[in-house]
Amino acid sequence: MKKIEILSPCVCAGRNMEAGMLLDIDAIRPGDAGILIGSGLAREVERYEVPERDIVPETRDPEPAKKTARKSRK
Q1: Within 13 Å, how many C-alpha atoms sit on residue 34's CB side?
Q2: Are the CB atoms for 39 and 8 separated by under 8 Å?
Q3: 37 to each of 17, 41, 42, 66, how far by Cα in Å?
Q4: Residue 62 to residue 46: CA distance in whole angstroms
Q5: In degrees rounded to 5, what are phi and psi of residue 73?
Q6: Does the pLDDT value for residue 8 go beyond 70?
Q7: Which label site among 5, 8, 29, 67 has the fewest CB atoms less than 10 Å from its CB?
Q8: Using an 8 Å Cβ cutoff, are 41 and 32 in contact?
Q9: Mean pLDDT along residues 43-53
Q10: Going by C-beta distance under 8 Å and a sequence separation of 6 or more, which residues neighbour residue 34?
Q11: In the 3-class helix/strand/coil scheme, how is 9-71 assigned residue by residue?
Q12: What is the predicted pLDDT for the residue at 58?
């Protein structure tokens, strides 16, 4: 899926854009995308969507430390 990555903070299409934002190409007009890419404020990147999983990572409690008996001094 093609997206546009904003490289520098700017204002485009009435929105404040921050560096690192990813936008769908269909979310803005082709003319705005051309201006952003042509001016060096953004670049076109290929990103793949990762499906969300309902799997919860398994967590376990650490085993308690074994207590050792101390030798008494005489």
Answers
A1: 3
A2: no
A3: 13, 6, 5, 62
A4: 41
A5: -90, 140
A6: yes
A7: 67
A8: no
A9: 80
A10: none
A11: CEEECCEEECCCCEEEHHHCCHHHHHHHHHCCCEEEEECCCCCCCCCCCCCCCCCCCCCCCCC
A12: 67
User: Which are the contacts of 6, defined by CB distance < 8 A and separation ≥ 6?
Assistant: 17, 18, 19, 20, 21, 22, 23, 36, 41, 42
- Whose tokens are 């936008």? That residue is 23
pTM exceeds 0.70, yes or no: no
Which tokens is 60 given? 């376990």
Structure tokens at 4: 């546009």
Identity of the amino acid at 26:
D
Q: Which residues contact 19 (CB under 8 A, 6 or more apart)?
A: 6, 7, 8, 9
